[in-house]
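Entry 14. Structure prediction run on the chain below.
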Amino acid sequence: MKLVVELPATMDAHYTVVRRARAVAAARAEYEAKDIPTENFERLWAAEWAFLTSARLELGLPVIARDEMTSLERTSPEL
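Output returned:
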């Protein structure tokens, strides 16, 4: 990422996605996949949206509305 990212905000958003994904993985050690707290996934999806928004802005692309990104049904996937 550091090779292609220009703005610190985009790099920070990337790190947040990685941290949130790791939190979901860590929760999997404690819970069955279907029992991982919904908040873990909500934080991950929010971080994903923030990263994609930052990356699109950096590339000069229009921001996608959050509801357009979540048009697919999101449920806690089996891990």
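Residues 22 and 62 are 29 Å apart (CA to CA).
Filed with the rest of this week's runs.
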